[in-house]
Amino acid sequence: MTEVPKIVYDRLRAALPERALSGRAEPERAHPDADLLTAFAEQALSATERDGVLEHLALCGDCREVIALAIPAADMVPPPIADETDRVRTTVSRAGAPAPHKLSFAWPSLRWAALAAGVAVAAAVLLMHPGKLNQAMPPSANPQIATAVPPASGPQIASSPMDQSAPLAKTDEARQKSELQLSNKLKAGQVVTRSLQAESGILLAGNKKDSAQADKLSAAPSAGSRTFHYDAPAGRRATETVEVSGAAAGVALAPSAEGSLMARNDAPAIEKAKPALQGIEATERQKTESAVVPAPARSQARNVMSVAKLASPASQTLAQNVTWTIAAGALQRSLDGGQSWQNALRTDHPLLCYASHDEDVWTGGQAGTLFHSADRGVTWVQVQPSIKAQALSSDITHIDMRSTAEIVVSTSNDEIWSSADGGKTWDKK
Amino acid sequence: MPRSAQPGQGADVATALYERSGAAAYGMSAEQFATILDEILRKYLSQDSAHASADQKADFCAGLHLEELALARACAAGNERAWQDFISRYRQKLHSMALHITRDGAHAAELADSLFADLYGVNARDGVRSSKLVSYIGRGSLEGWLRTVMAQEFINRYRKQKRTVSLEEQTEEGVQFAAAVPEPACASDQRLEAATDEALAELSSEDRFTLASYYLDGRTLAEIARMLRLHESSVSRRLDRLATGLRKRILAGLRMQGMSHAQAAEALETDVRDIRLNLRSRLTQDSGAKTFPGGKVPEQDAGDRSHD
Q1: What is the pLDDT of residues B192-217, one digit of tens each?
Q2: Residue of B97, B139, B277 lying closest to A36 (CB–CB)
Q3: Does the complex come out with an ipTM higher than 0.85?
Q4: Long-range contacts of range A106-113, CB-CB < 8 Å, 24 or more positions apart?
């Protein structure tokens, strides 16, 4: 940064607030009132008023301090890659508060990023499977969900706008037929290929039907992975390949057995994480439960202390538009834009802040409490940042997610802990 | 606006604003709400109220956060349902805001509780409970207003506490009282000050705000960017541009006062304060190397590093 001459420091310092207030007749208008400062911070002033406030702020260190303290930390984070409904949110809950200014400079980069990603995916598909676009991909070719339609992972398939808007002209007879075919092929361990229309019809069916389908999927052989290939023959042709391995099958298509997520307001139970060697036993137990929660694979590589998971299977199918807030020391989640809230996580120590980005959610609280969820709060992993035998133990007051992998945690004693690999390793400043 | 506008049109607008605010849910009549809007118009359009048209007033009122204004004023009036809504919406947020501002759990609870008491109106004037929410006007969001009021309260408290810390406490904490900084032996060139003031005066208020925030307050680029709703890189470029431009303008100003280019550059670079700071920096460095041979060299004075 270019330095200014020292005389500039002195002359800036010499400009006292009294100078800014000269000419004002009303003593109570000496400093801009809280309303005006708030409107300034929220860019709600006219150009004339804004200039007036800036004129005062340029000379009044107190009001600059107020503005600096009053601007929420949420605004600090630029919207990196997510859409408007699920952008980065931090610390101070702002449910229902729109931030239209960010989108204007977020989209140009997003457009190009999305285009580049689309080209890369298309090129990869063409290279790997020339001439076989309408056939199923082998299970080993795609270890994670890869989709050509707008982001909609397994649990969100039923609620994604595109699926809802898809033509659902299938009759009940056709649905039952398709469902029967699906279950038969699953039992036979075959790759299933079906039309988007038929699949949407099944996924949007009632809870009873969904439960039956989930049971069928749970009962399917778990050896190897299954690949679903949705092929829409209509004008909107979409190909979606979903790999379902073991217990994840239950998650991907687990229905909302309780009918409504809004009615649920209990905190999820927190269970201690099982060692990796007990995974087989845990998998067997999970298969017997209607709610199957997959342990995130990457959690094994970090400092895992315990895993919290939601008790109800209904919570596993979450809408994409999730809003988070901290209330009474617990992390709460809203699926309807803040109309109703449900406890997403309650810990021994009160939670103080959170940050979310796409499906990743981090929340922190007193005594170094730090939890991470990679699936919108379905499962939680407690993370203990540490470096050279020194662990984070003070209150976490702010979490900044600059990307899915880059997390910065601020503490009450002004420590800054950062991780560039999604919480696997940490640095302390 | 609602009353002063044309009778027919004004009534329609007032009704629309009243319905939009949802004030009826808190037992507030249309007349009461219109009175509140009139007060706000008088306050903010006091200078231009005579010239402001009905449309301008209507636009101004439509730009207010009417629903939050109705909630705040209903709370101030003691409406129970309004308080229930306020508590459910903002009670926890107050604590989060306080924590963000104070970065300390105990102080945050104290600050939040104190503000909540002010909002509720614990203090009574002439037997009438006075709620701080009366001063909310709705130009910004209620949440933002609460944050601003809390920041003001925090600064007031911090100052108050800072003023009342005894010398013994400071001594116990290890605070060492430095000797008063002597005034420079010779005053800086009046022409230099005049040229600098002139160059600063030519800047826009936003540029001066940026300079003061960065160089005087020590704010980071990110903080300034948040305040101005700009990107960090924009602030960085602006500061570079300002620093370069200021130097050029000051030099031009000095030359206008009869100095040659070399003299102006020398006056700008060899300001007496620079000499003092540089000497101190050099002395500190030299003495550290000699006094602690092989040991850890003490860090330079933070102020010096920031200036050099």
Answers
A1: 888 888 888 888 989 989 988 998 88
A2: B139
A3: no
A4: A106/A78, A106/A79, A106/A80, A110/A81, A113/A81
